[in-house]
Each structure stands twice: as structure tokens, then as C-alpha cells.
Design goal:
With 430 residues, this protein is α+β, with helices and mostly antiparallel strands. The chain has one domain: Polyamine Oxidase, Chain A, domain 2 (Alpha-Beta Complex). 28% of the residues lie in helices and 20% in strands. It contains 11 helices and 22 strands. A 7-stranded mixed beta sheet has the order 7-6-17-18-19-16-20, with helices on both faces. Strand 10 and strand 11 form a beta hairpin. The chain is globular and about 65 Å long.
Amino acid sequence: MAGITATQTLHNASIRDFMILDVNDYIGGRVKHTTFGNNAATGEPYTVELGANWVQGLGSEGGPENPIWTLAKKWGLQNKYSNYSSIQTYDENGATDYAARLDDYENAYSTVEQDAGTILTQTYQDRTMRTGLSIADWKPKKNMQKQAAEWWEFDWEYTYSPDQSKYQNYNKTFYQFSGENNYVFDQRGFNYFIQAEASTFLTPNDTRLHLNANITSVAWSSNSVTITTADGSCFQADYAICTFSLGVLQNEAVDFTPALPYWKQEGIESMQMGTYTKIFLQFPPSPDGTFFWEKGADSNTQFFLYADPIERGWYPVWQSLSAPGFIPRSGIFFVTVVYAQSYRAEHQSDDATKAEVMAALRNMFGNDIPEPLDFMYPRWSIEPWAYGSYSNWPPGLSLETHQNLRANVERLWFAGEATSVEYFGFLQEE
């Protein structure tokens, strides 16, 4: 999205001599969807999001509005408020009420927020989020229900644990807008709004837009920038804006000539690139028309949290797209993993992952649940044009070093979510 935003800005400034190079055959980058399952009523597949899925932080009355929310409304994206209070909790023995653990975490986090604000204003030495939570008397240790609650409250957002994350992360994200999050399930795909916005300044078959352009090298100097793609094409410009994901930069998937200076490499390597993997399953309904996760729970329930007895973050957060207001009767149930569990799942076969997922579901709902009709998940950590999902700010990364990540080298500029101090990891950063 950063590239489209940049070129729209140029267009609005009456600068029309630009080109857009995109490795994919669509506009949208990590805002990516695919087809999945089957709608029994129409015979057509559903559309599900592989990447970005929420408009996060909508805005409050009298305050600023999230620009992504503004565009979502402009282009009529179908979405629904994610009610994080609509949750059922489970462990290896099935439904087990430990929702109070979530309240305990949130109470501790309130203390962390106050301390983080003091650290920001006083420029104290940075600490890990774990330090802040421990000071606030949140110490889950080997209590797996507490670990699940913490994963739900923290890892699920940042893709890293509190041990690996900066103390003040939250202070630089939601506060400007609001704490509300809306889940996008538009069957045109979330990236429809990006493509629609691009259509306001790009013409059909615009020759300035080059899709399927796999960039292999970038030669930069004080005079110009030259881009070479895998098919041997060369593009030269007075200036260029690099919107590669942080993962691409860290994996040296593109050659820079000359090599980027040390200060620039340090900025790139000091930020974290997280992986957020959604694993989708579609199930058949029971004879009475309900789905197994709706039995014994409110059919309106949006989230289901699993505390594995051994492994923290083992297929923990489940979401029902059959809940009212989403995609009713779709039978789509999906689970999210991050970080090490993402790497595991993404490097093993679908069958191996499906077996693990179904074992977790049987712990939660019993052995009589049906086999899925369809099963699918992306592999963001090994996707050559992404190498991850979005960035996270680690402890110890200074503002000065992060500024080096964003800073230009001669006529080569850098943009994208990882370069933002305020909104790293969020779509509005771009």
C-alpha cells in the first residue's frame, strides 16, 4: 500500500512522471486474499484474507479518524466490529472458564501503560514488556491458562512475546485513534479499497504500472537509481522509493549496488519481522444445521481460546466466520499462530499441520468432531517477496537507529510499515 500512497501523493502534487513496479499480479502487497471452501448455496468459493484482516483503531468522536477506516467506508468494505469480550476459554479438558485470567492481565497492563507513558516522557532506559508486566505482578510462569491469556492479549497482536518486545509498544499505536477493531470479510477482498483508490489516479492498463515485476537489483547513486528485474528489464529514475518489506531487506533478497552503508544495514537488522499465520478450516454442519463449536456456547461467540497443557501458543486463538454478521453458515473456523509456531507450521506439510490442529480441536470439543471439508494456510515466513507478515519494535532499538531504517541513501528513499515510529506493524503506517 505504501507505493500506491506515495504515487497518489505525487499525482496530487501534479507530478505524473512516475512508475510503479510490483512483484505481484495485483495491487495490495501483504493485503492479500484467496478463495477457500465452498458456499453450498451458490457453489462458489468464499474469499478469505491471508494477510491484513482488520481496520485497527477506527477513531473517536472529536478526534482524528484512522485513514484506513476513512477509505474502508468510502469504498464500502464489508466489515464487523471484533468483540473481544465474545470469547469462550478451553484447555485440554474442554470448555474451562478462565476468563478471569484475561481480566487479571488487563489490570496489570493498565499499570504497564502508565509506566510506559512515564518512560516516554522522561526518556528512561528502555525495558522489555516482560519487565513491565512482572513489575505489575503479572507472572504467568508455568500456569498455561495465564500463558494463553497473555498470548491472546499480546502475542496475537505483535507476533512476538512480551520478552521480545519493547516496553512502550502500545503507546505508539492505538492511542491516536481508538481501541476498536473491525474485521474485514468483504468478498471482493480487503485490498479492493487499495485498488479502487489507485483507480482514481491510474487509468485502465496504465503503462506506468508494471505488475509481475520481480526486482533483483537496485543501483543507486547521487544522480539516479536504476532498477533491474528478473526478466532483464531496466528502469531508471531520478529518484526511487523502496517499499520492500522489512523481511525482504533482512534476507538480502535484492542486491543493492553499491552495498547499503553500515548505518543503514544496522537500522534494517535491528527491527524485528514477525510472522502471523492464519490456518483456515471449513467444516460441515451437524444435522440440526449448527456447527460443533456452537454447541455448549453462544452461537454469537466470535473467539475461542485454547490453553495447551505443554506448549505456549499451540493453536491458541480460534475465530468463527459463521458468527452472525460475518459469513453466516460458511462453516469456516480458523486459528492463528505466530513466531516459532508459524515457522513450524509453515515449514511442515499441510497434512502434518492438519493433524496437530485437529488434535487441539478434539481436546477442546471432543473426539466426535468431523473432519474438515477444506484446509489451507499461507506461508508468509518463506514467501520470497515478503519473508514475514509485519514488523515489531524490539527492546534496545533506539529512535536514532530506527530513523536510519527510514532514512534515504542518496536518491533512494524508503517507506512502508516498518519505517514508521508511530504505526509500525499496522496498515495505516503505509
